[in-house]
Amino acid sequence: MVFIKYIFILFLLINNSCTNTRILLEGTKQVINKTSKDVPKIASNKDVSIGHYKVGNPYEINGIEYIPKLVSKYDEIGIASWYGPKFNLKKTSNGEIFYQDEISAAHKTLPLPSIVKVTNITSNRVIYLRVNDRGPFVNDRIIDFSKKAAIKFNFYEKGMADVRVQLIDSGPHLLEKKYLNHGFLTTYAKNIDLVKNRKIIKNSSVLLQVGAFKEKKNALNLINFLKSKINDNLFIKDILILDNELIYKVFAGPFKEESVAKEVANKLLELGFNTIYKKE
What we know:
This protein is α+β, with helices and mostly antiparallel strands and 280 residues long. The protein has helices spanning 2-38, 147-152, 182-202, 216-227, 258-270, and strands spanning 59-61, 64-66, 75-83, 105-106, 114-120, 126-133, 141-146, 160-170, 206-213, 234-241, 245-255, 276-279.
């Protein structure tokens, strides 16, 4: 009888030990699961492109030296071309992947990435592009579109287009993946462009009208010529006249002080341009 009693007590001890072990194991599992769930996730790079921001060092292609620069303004007229098949799925100059069927662009010297506004001089069509590569390195071409961008801008079959390229923005924030979405990028760039134009109007006091043209290309050519001659803001205003006809007026300014405007007017007169004062 005593022997049976000892066996019963031993059974209870073993059973209790197993129960405690199971409770301990299950409790540990719950703690691990809870800990895994409650620990804040480490921030990942999933919202950033695989590329990097760069201005870059001077480099040479076909005997011509190119010097990348960090600039706040860029406004040039020239020829746009496009590139695609030979470079598809290869790395761009800032380490991203080039996809010919997505919208992007290449430029010789602007920081990477940058956003530019490109205007077709003939059709007045506008597109905003994210620049993440270097090129083009042919003649007087100033920007290379991806294949899809060229299709969207309606010069894919022709191969080239006369354009005006203006810098809108640049910086490491443009590495965020949301800027790879062309719809988002366009809205973002348009807002910056609008704010810049409003500032020009708000700060205006005196403008100098330098010329008026029926063809926008001629107005842009004048701006391109004058940029190397006078160190002042130059822009075009589209003016609607009789019979719904547009003329393109080229202005210098705005100038807060009339004395400064007169100095610029004298410079322009020396270059052979009579000016008209406009107060805004």
